[in-house]
Amino acid sequence: MNLAQILQPGCVKVPLNGRDRQSVITELVDLLNEKGLLLDKKIVLDAVLMREQTRSTGIGSGIALPHGKCKGVRELVMAIGIAGEPIDFASVDGKPVKIVILLASPVDQTGPHIQALARISRLMLDTKFKENIEKAASANEVYSLLNAKENQ
């Protein structure tokens, strides 16, 4: 799976304005909605927040992967936000988050959803790449870094 084929250039925000889990998730869902990628913003937001209540999507190492499956999207969509100040995401390692990558997919597309989560996790194991994403000064820079990494 190539994440550069899922992420649209306008679906990256640097820096995020939110200072807590719910506000940054809302901010990224709003961004997807502004780009016309959602069928129903409320359904998507509710699905992602409900998943977050089940168990934090703060996977450690400064990364959070909030996600949800719902009827509010027609296909897998993705948004990335870089926090100006680290955010408490109740991560498994207890550390705050700088990189927030949100995924939403239709209920009947479990395979692509899981593949995207796995691909993001693998990419973020590359310490240099992760650091470059964290330090990116603009949304365009984040998109370019991801695009270059996925197409090398």
Q: Care to describe what's here?
A:
The chain has 152 residues and is α/β, with parallel strands linked by helices. The chain has one domain (11-150): Mannitol-specific EII, Chain A, CATH 3.40.930. Helix content is 42%, strand content 22%. It has helices at residues 21-34, 41-54, 110-124, 127-135, 139-150; strands at residues 12-16, 58-60, 63-64, 67-69, 77-87, 97-105. Strands 1, 2, 3, 4, 5 and 6 form a six-stranded mixed beta sheet that branches. Strand 2 (58-60) and strand 3 (63-64) form a beta hairpin. Helix 1 (21-34) runs antiparallel to helix 2. The chain is globular and about 35 Å long. The two termini are 13 Å apart. The mean pLDDT is 95.
Order of helices and strands: EHHEEEEEHHH
Sheet of most strands: 6 strands, mixed
**Beta strand %:** 15-25%
Overall 3D shape: globular
Q: What's the rounded overall pLDDT mean? A: 95
The structural domain count equals 1
- Output the number of helix runs: 5
Q: How would you classify the helix and strand content by structural class? A: alpha/beta
Identify the CATH homologous superfamily: Mannitol-specific EII, Chain A
Using only C-alpha atoms, the radius of gyration works out to 14 Å
What is the number of E strands?
A: 6
Instruction: Give me the CATH fold name.
Output: Mannitol-specific EII, Chain A
CATH architecture assignment name: 3-Layer(aba) Sandwich
> Segments where pLDDT lies below 50 for 5+ residues?
none
Helix proportion of residues, in percent?
40-55%
Question: Gap between N and C termini, in Å?
Answer: 13 Å
